[in-house]
Automatic annotation (TrEMBL), chain A:
Similarity-based family: Belongs to the SecD/SecF family. SecF subfamily.
InterPro entries linked: SecD/SecF_arch_bac, SecD/SecF_bac, SecD/SecF_CS, SecD_SecF_C, SecD_SecF_C_bact, SecF_bac
UniProt keyword Transmembrane present: yes
Keyword Nucleotide-binding applies: no
Subcellular localization(s) per the UniProt record: Cell membrane
Annotated transmembrane regions: 21-46, 136-157, 169-187, 193-215, 243-265, 271-294
Residue span(s) of domain Protein export membrane protein SecD/SecF C-terminal: 114-295
Keywords: Cell membrane, Membrane, Protein transport, Translocation, Transmembrane, Transmembrane helix, Transport
Protein name: Protein-export membrane protein SecF
UniProtKB/TrEMBL annotation, chain B:
Record keywords: Cell membrane, Membrane, Protein transport, Translocation, Transmembrane, Transmembrane helix, Transport
Transmembrane segments: 368-388, 395-417, 423-442, 463-488, 494-518
Protein name (record): Protein translocase subunit SecD
Organism encoding this protein: Ancylobacter radicis
Residue stretches making up the Protein translocase subunit SecDF P1 domain: 160-218
Function field: Part of the Sec protein translocase complex. Interacts with the SecYEG preprotein conducting channel. SecDF uses the proton motive force (PMF) to complete protein translocation after the ATP-dependent function of SecA.
Keyword Protein transport set for record: yes
Pfam family, one: SecD_1st
């Protein structure tokens, strides 16, 4: 049986030279993402904004969206979004946070139920009060920062600081692009989005570390090789793995996007963007070339190794001294 | 890297097998499950987003609690000063403390000594930390009593514990299966009730304090007059639940309160056929109610629930038997719910709903279906791709991943963890990432073979070198999952759990099962060249 081989064995693409294209592209995309974030802003879901969300179904094609709209508008609840979803008479109703504290939010569901009347299936009802939404938002932000911090510490222990810094910059780039994507396409930003961001973070790092591991190994083995060439070889020799893993993760995510249901749709779409489009690109085209600028070089490493050896010899000598 | 002793191989196989078998209790029929020994009674719980149900977070209002505490303190101060026969004036709540003016000199000293007895040590007499729940100080002729922050805090914690007990009693009456009621932080209660069709009834049951009191109606002036002028000392104007609400002038003095009820049941009034709630007092309550009704024949009294007048009948004859009925234009369900509330008792403080998430059973069933389809399609596509890319080694990878997924569910069951829709997404994603460990190993083996090693040596070196990378890359992902578990709740936490467990089982299978299977194949075939 002939096996599928996506990346030929003798692939030798000059990734380092490509950085003159990939860095500007990433810079432009990051700016676009930041501008979108500042101007359009994220489409905060009720987790972070507070308010009420109802998913209702009208059985047997009895849905009359105009009727629903007029009934709800007569309630005078401020900003109400009504969105038809799916093809089976389902409507998503979002009511903005009401003035007047926690109790006012609770009253909304009762009013909407009364206005829509009998014969409607309530598939989902969520009410998040002002206090909880505030907390969830700060939890989300703290969580993201905590994760980045913990990972940084781990990388710093495990690798040289240049690698830790390179991985962090690459990661930051991933998060910025994903947030920009969510702002441009107005994808619901809620708790599951934070979960998606953290997963993207974890996955992208996972990818970066595989290449960094190889770079470190090559640095130890080929002390005379020019740094450019060494980085190129590291990326090329792990390229087949990057691509194959990329395909498997894409397949898994594609299944989630297509069949996973609406409840996790924004989650799946965000992951698809972050992992499939950004994560792998970053590890190859951003994280690794960055190392050159951060001062990783065969020569620096050789000097350090020499110094380490010297230190070890000195301390040994001291220990032997009576 | 490729040598396994027989015992080690057996240990790996048995361990993986046992973990996978832990799923069994979750899929057994309930009757068989109940007959299992208790050690094995551990199963995966479906999250509310999959089985449908309500998630409600209630919060004790610190402000309400402080207010109640201050009122209590004021009443206690009045009692203590009266008992000590100390003259005082202007006893009132001022902001966050209670103030009272006494005469300078001996009276003031006596008053201070007496009022100091009101300050209780925190944590009770046994576990006292030396801190008091109230600060008592004197400046000139004014004595100030201030509840300390630590005192309010400990009372909040106490109130939450008591509320949890009462809420449990109320919910148990609904007859739902496996409700979960937990403390969340210091001042919140998280209630999860699976499989409830209508959460509004649940919310009504949780949101009411259910403080029931029997008090006399003041007939010296009408409620209207009291509203226009000043209500007489010791009375309040309270309203009924009618539309429009009817005001009543009610004495503050409580004849009997809900604490003295021993039973309450819904029933029908024999003459009007209206739904009513019949109740019975304990001995103490019965005695007090008998005395009060004897002394006030011909006067109306009011039955008050949470400061709303339910009804205000006239006492026609003394009620000596210690039982009675409450009527108030109830529907059958209202009468039912009121008797549930009265039986369970009153909450020590009002609770407020700060978050509610309800998923109907229809959506839950749809989500389960979507989760199963997505998992099967995702796993199937990944498996096909792996076999197409690596042939026999691909099959080994697929077996390893299948056992991996089995182990994820096994660990979930052992932990009694909750499976949510994002949790299923976590499993699907793990499948995508788990094969990465196999890909890393196989690609490394290919590289080593290309570099000129013999087949067996290449396989050995491939494992050695790839495993270090696998460990490194998975630890970072695990950190992200751990943080997510820490900050998340509900469905998101479900994702963090499966994803985190998935990473651990992935590392385990890469280090043991994949290696074992490849080693067995090598021993069997003695390959001359690497087959990938």
């Amino acid at each position: 049986m002939r096996l599928l081989r996506i990346v030929p064995d003798d692939t030798n693409f000059d990734f380092m030279r490509f950085r003159r294209i990939s860095f500007p592209i990433s810079a432009i995309l990051s700016i676009v993402a930041l501008v979108a974030f500042m101007t359009v802003g994220l489409n905060f879901g009720i987790d972070f904004k507070g308010g009420t969300l109802l998913e209702v179904r009208y059985p047997n094609a009895t849905l009359n969206i105009a009727d629903v709209r007029s009934r709800l508008e007569s309630l005078d609840l401020g900003e109400v979004q009504i969105q038809e979803i799916g093809s089976e008479g389902e409507v998503l109703i979002r009511v903005a946070q009401q003035p007047g504290g926690e109790q006012a939010q609770q009253a909304v569901v009762g009013k909407v139920r009364a206005a829509l009347g009998e014969g409607v299936e309530y598939r989902r009802v969520e009410v998040v009060g002002p206090r909880v939404s505030q907390e969830l938002l700060s939890y989300g932000i703290v969580g993201l920062m905590l994760a980045v911090f913990c990972i940084l510490i781990y990388l710093w222990f495990r690798f040289e600081w240049q690698f830790a810094l390179g991985a962090s910059i690459a990661n930051f780039h991933d998060i910025v692009l994903t947030i920009g994507f969510m702002a441009i396409f107005q994808i619901d930003f809620d708790l599951t989005s934070v979960a998606a961001l953290l997963t993207i973070l974890g996955y992208s790092l996972n990818d970066t570390i595989v290449i960094y591991d190889r770079i470190r190994e090559m640095l130890r083995r080929y002390k005379k090789m020019p740094t450019d060439e060494l980085l190129n070889q590291s990326i090329n020799s792990t390229l087949s793995r990057s691509v194959i893993t990329h395909v498997t993760v894409t397949l898994a995510l594609l299944a989630l996007v297509l069949f996973g249901g609406r409840a996790i749709h924004s989650f799946s779409i965000t992951m698809m963007f972050g992992v499939v489009l950004v994560g792998t690109y970053t590890s190859i085209f951003i994280a690794s070339p960055l190392l050159i600028y951060l001062g990783v070089s065969t020569r620096a490493l050789a000097e350090k190794a020499e110094k380490d050896a010297q230190n070890a010899a000195n301390s040994k000598a001291e220990r032997l001294a009576p | 890297m490729l040598y396994f002793s027989k015992w080690k191989a057996l240990a790996i196989a048995v361990f993986s097998g046992i973990i996978c078998l832990m799923i069994l209790p979750s899929v057994l029929p309930p009757a068989t499950y109940d007959s299992l020994p208790s050690v094995l009674q551990r199963k995966i719980v479906l999250g509310l987003d999959l089985q449908g149900g309500s998630y409600i977070v209630l919060q004790v209002e610190a402000g309400d609690l402080r207010k109640a505490r201050l009122e209590h303190l004021r009443d206690d101060a009045r009692r203590v000063l009266r008992d000590a026969k100390v003259g005082y004036s202007g006893l009132a709540i001022q902001g966050d403390s209670v103030q009272v003016r006494v005469r300078e000199g001996q009276d003031a000293d006596a008053a201070l000594t007496q009022l100091r007895t009101l300050a209780m040590p925190l944590g009770g007499a046994l576990a006292s930390t030396g801190q008091l729940d109230t600060d008592v100080s004197r400046s000139g002729d004014v004595i100030t009593l201030t509840p300390t922050a630590a005192g309010i805090q400990s009372r909040t914690i106490q109130a939450v514990s008591q509320s949890i007990e009462i809420i449990r009693k109320r919910i148990d009456q609904l007859g739902t299966t496996e409700p979960s009621i937990q403390r969340q932080g210091s001042d919140r209660i998280q209630v999860q009730v699976p499989g409830l069709q209508d959460p509004s009834r649940l919310k009504a049951l949780l949101g009411q304090t259910a403080q029931l009191t029997f008090r006399l109606v003041d007939t010296t002036m009408s409620a209207q007059q009291a509203l226009q002028g000043r209500p007489p000392a010791g009375t309040d104007v309270l309203y009924s639940e009618d539309q429009p609400p009817v005001p009543y002038l009610i004495e503050q003095r409580v004849l009997v309160a809900g604490e003295d009820l021993v039973d309450a049941q819904p029933s029908f009034d024999p003459t009007t056929r209206e739904p009513v709630v019949t109740f019975r007092f304990n001995t103490n309550g019965a005695r007090r109610f008998a005395e009060a009704t004897q002394a006030n024949v011909g006067r109306p009294f009011a039955i008050i629930l949470d400061n709303k007048v339910i009804s205000a009948p006239v006492i026609r004859e003394p009620i000596l038997g210690g039982s009675g009925q409450i009527s108030g234009n109830f529907s059958v369900q209202q009468a039912n719910d009121l008797s549930i509330l009265l039986r369970a008792g009153a909450l020590p403080v009002p609770l407020q709903v700060v978050e509610e998430r309800t998923v109907g059973p229809g959506l839950g069933a749809d989500s389960i279906r979507a989760g199963i389809i997505a998992s099967l399609v995702g796993a199937g596509a990944v498996a096909l791709f792996m076999v197409a890319t690596y042939g026999l080694f691909g099959v080994i990878a697929v077996i390893a991943v299948a056992i991996n997924v089995g182990m994820i569910f096994g660990v979930l069951a052992m932990l009694g963890a909750t499976l949510t829709l994002p949790g299923i997404a976590g499993v699907v994603l793990t499948v995508g990432i788990a094969v990465d460990s196999n890909v890393l190993i196989y690609e490394r083996i290919r590289e080593e073979a290309r570099a000129g090693r013999s087949a067996i040596s290449a396989i050995d070196a491939g494992f050695t070198r790839a495993l270090a990378t696998i460990l490194d890359s998975n630890i970072t992902t695990f950190i992200a999952a751990a943080v997510l578990f820490y900050i998340g709740s509900g469905p998101v936490r479900g994702f963090a759990i499966t994803f985190g467990i998935g990473i651990m089982t992935t590392v385990f299978t890469a280090f043991t099962l994949t290696r074992l299977m490849v080693a067995m194949w090598v021993r069997w075939r003695r390959p001359q060249r690497v087959p990938i």
